[in-house]
Structure formats: structure tokens, C-alpha cells
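haha ok so turns out i had the wrong file open the whole time. this is the CORRECT one, sorry everyone. sequence first:
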Amino acid sequence: MGRTISRVVASWHVSEGERSEAPLDVWLIDDLGGCTRITTGSDRCLIVESSPPHAPYDMGEWGRVEVGEDLGDHPFLRHLGETVASVTEYALPEQGRTHLEIGFPDGGLVRADCYQGDLRLMR
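then structure:
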């Protein structure tokens, strides 16, 4: 909170030339160089951690994971250069973190959650 988003990087699964609809990971990189990674865990909880983007990697017959700033239609893009005004985390005792809401000064909000094991980002 209180930092300006200067870059957004994401990772995508690519198989047989097709990129996954949703990103696997999203990194919000702030004006001070801090990196916040948002992703999902194998237990279908949402993971939020301080971690820089990893390198792309090949998974053989299962495709590859690409990492970069080519985000397509991504909810965080409209907030580049904006300061994060609020962060609200929701969790259940038996499940862990279920979703995260990141608010911006203009009232904009991006929600990150885990939907059927996949990262889902919505405005």
C-alpha cells in the first residue's frame, strides 16, 4: 500500500502455440523496485509474496511458461502509474487466503482470486 505500480509482469502457459487464457502468476513491480507476486497454490488458495519474476522455462511435451509484459487485456494495466490506496485480504480458516482486493485512489478495484485452481483477475 502507498506504492506506485510502475510495471506489471505475468507468466503464461503456452502449449501447441496457444497461450492460456489466464496468467499463472502476476508480479506488481513498484516505483521502489519491490515485486509482489500473486499466484495460486496447489491447494487452491491465493498466494501473495514478495518475489521477483522468474525466468521462462520449457516443460517438454507439456509446453512452456513464458514471462513478460505482454499482458493482453489485463485489469492491472489501467492502473499503471497509480498508487495502491488499499489492500484487503479475505481468508477462510480451513482454506487460507481466498481473494485479495487492491484499491486505487480513483475508486478502481482489482480482485484476485483462485477459481477452479486458476488465477482470476477482475475489475
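The mean pLDDT is 91.
again sry for the mixup
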